[in-house]
Write a structure and sequence with these properties.
It is built from 13 helices and twelve strands. The chain has 313 residues and is an alpha/beta fold.
Length: 313
């Protein structure tokens, strides 16, 4: 199976690097600057599960993309999705499968509209990654899970081929028959974790120490209500695990959104928080008579975006 990894940033570079080391047919689609880095330094991953140094990995610029691929692994930021679709469009044929690893759900409709719904799979990953100033990818924990599946939940011949291509490649690869459920659950967790740590500019432990546990639980509960309204209620054991992770005293947990804020980068506030609000039941939006937890974190994060846009104008 010929695999195109869109970008060689933290997520694409990590999973693409593991696939390359496992001998899979992988090509990275990159911009000019990243192409020069890969030619000069190779693909570098520093991980507690084993480092990667892959000299000059196969990569291509969008202008030189003139053939279709079997599988496209997509891990861009939501605000970059339109540009990414423009870049990899020549690689999409009638049978090409697109496996997005973005948070939230809105990207599924956007991909299905730009290409066809039949091209699109469901997917998510559970891993903490960043990049240092040199471009090296830093794996910040010992988890590297990637789940995927047909949006219908069916075990089709094509998804079994994807499972074969991603198996035994140095990460925890899982074919799921309930991938949409899992994506909703992760979205609720990310919206809560990113909403709290991003808006408070602090770790979960610091927010707890400041008396913020009730706010965290309120935000998680509100997100869970949105998921239930959409037909994907968070499973009780999953909700219990989320509550424990998000209310542990002394936790150093922060979301990647906070790291983006600290480096004055764009954030996925509309995709992660704004879209959650847009899907909220109308009665929930008006029942409180004031700002809900979702509204509060959205206001804080939009204020950051407004200031950033003004300063970069």
């Amino acid at each position: 199976m010929r695999i195109l990894i869109v970008g060689a940033g933290a997520i694409g570079g990590y999973f693409g690097g593991r696939l390359l080391e496992a001998g899979r047919d992988v090509t990275f689609l990159v911009r000019q600057g990243r192409s020069e880095e890969l030619d000069r330094d190779g693909l570098i991953v520093r991980s507690p599960l084993g480092n990667i140094l892959y000299p000059s990995p196969p990569h291509r610029l969008a202008a030189l993309l003139d053939e279709t691929f079997d599988l496209i692994l997509l891990s861009c930021k939501a605000q970059d999705l339109d540009a990414a679709m423009d870049a990899f469009a020549p690689a999409v044929g009638p049978d090409t499968l697109i496996l997005p690893l973005l948070n939230g759900m809105a990207h599924l409709d956007r991909l299905g509209t730009r290409f066809t719904p039949g091209n699109v799979l469901g997917g998510q990953c559970l891993i903490s990654l960043d990049r240092d100033a040199s471009g090296a990818i830093l794996h910040l924990n010992d988890t590297n899970q990637l789940s995927f599946g047909e949006l219908s939940g069916a075990l089709t011949p094509r998804i079994l081929k994807v499972a074969e291509a991603l198996a035994d490649a140095g990460f925890d690869s899982s074919l799921s028959q309930q991938i949409v459920q899992e994506m909703w659950e992760k979205w609720c967790f990310i919206a809560t974790g990113a909403g709290v740590t991003g808006s408070m500019r602090a770790s979960i432990g610091d927010v707890i120490a400041s008396g913020g546990e009730a706010f965290i639980i309120g935000l998680l509960t509100e997100c869970a209500s949105v998921a239930q309204h959409a037909g994907y209620p968070i499973r009780s054991e999953v909700l219990q695990r989320f509550r424990k992770m998000l209310t542990t005293p002394g936790s150093k947990m922060t979301a990647s959104m906070l790291r983006d804020i600290e480096r004055h980068a764009p954030i996925e506030v509309e995709h992660v928080i704004g879209d959650m609000i847009a899907r909220r039941p109308q009665q929930d939006a008006t029942a409180s008579g004031g700002l809900s937890a979702l509204d509060v974190v959205y206001l804080h994060l939009r204020a950051y975006e407004a200031r950033r846009e003004r300063e970069h104008a």
